[in-house]
């Protein structure tokens, strides 16, 4: 009997886990493609476009940011916060940790946001990433690719501790604190102290850039599976969030990888559709913001809600059915049916548990 109860509870937990909402969104830089600061209106336009994409396989109502600081200011909270509140967009916050002696300005901006926007802001925060690809930039490949100034594992761990103590007595105290890096940085055992220090492992996965792994487009799924598995196994029991992934719609050929709209669509269908709704995913991207990057990843032109390719997941990919953004009611019918199914399952399990 005891074993049966344990089994039933295990099934119950699995059901809860399956039902738990996973986040779906895009990355968003602090500047526009011309290096000018994004203002609140720019962020709002972006977040609305993300939520309104035609044929979208789920609502892209989350955003990953790289910094808390409004571009061009010392420590003014980034205007993305107000735009997120205005559009009900959840946020994976970012603390920029490279090329800097400290993160005081980032923490000041965060504290200001808590006091200025209060619970409305707090409720939308999914987690806080302390750093972005800092360890990759100091790795052998990062140096070879001239990826820029990075930060070492010891400093990242120190910054994580600083963030934890800075939010300890604030309404953000329960939010997960993590770090985002390339899969290869997580796979590097010299960085294991960072894994120990985080609540989640954010990973950036780009088969396109894996020019030593057979990165022809037809092999993209194999390369993705290889690098995703490497991150999962390095992360151990820490949850892995896919903080960046995508395939460029235009740009130079990288190794054997060709950038094109067709390949971007193929990657979305094969890789994206196998993840949406099952893992937390912040796709790269809706709007390009790095003029130095020759690869362009935006899946839509000028934030049009009509994307460059059909976003609906192919039948059989297991991804959620597409949301017709012109008829939200259809989506909510699906949601209600699903939650009624779950309620029925819980009730049944509860009855069985009581009767044994
Ligand atoms: C905001 O979005 C969440 C889902 O992300 C939803 O549960 C909630 O009802 C929305 N709130 C409003 C005011 O629309
Ligand atoms: C592994 O990580 C350490 C510390 O971040 C770095 O110095 C080293 O270059 C990395 N190894 C490789 C092969 O990149
Ligand atoms: C495909 O990718 C896998 C994983 O990186 C690699 O081992 C294999 O050699 C690649 N195949 C081709 C044909 O490039
Ligand atoms: C998009 O693709 C889906 C699934 O393949 C298909 O049912 C739908 O008609 C396509 N939509 C457009 C606008 O082509």
Automatic annotation (TrEMBL):
InterPro entries: Beta-glucan_modifiers, GH, Glyco_hydro_17. GO terms for molecular function: glucan endo-1,3-beta-D-glucosidase activity. It is found in: Secreted, Cell wall. One of its GO terms (biological process) is cell wall organization. It holds the Pfam family Glyco_hydro_17. Residues 1-18 form the signal peptide. Its main location: secreted. The chain crosses the membrane at residues 330-354. The keyword Transmembrane helix applies. Keywords: Cell wall, Hydrolase, Membrane, Secreted, Signal, Transmembrane, Transmembrane helix. GO terms for cellular component: cell surface; extracellular region; fungal-type cell wall. Belongs to the glycosyl hydrolase 17 family. This is Glycoside hydrolase family 17 protein. It comes from Trichoglossum hirsutum.
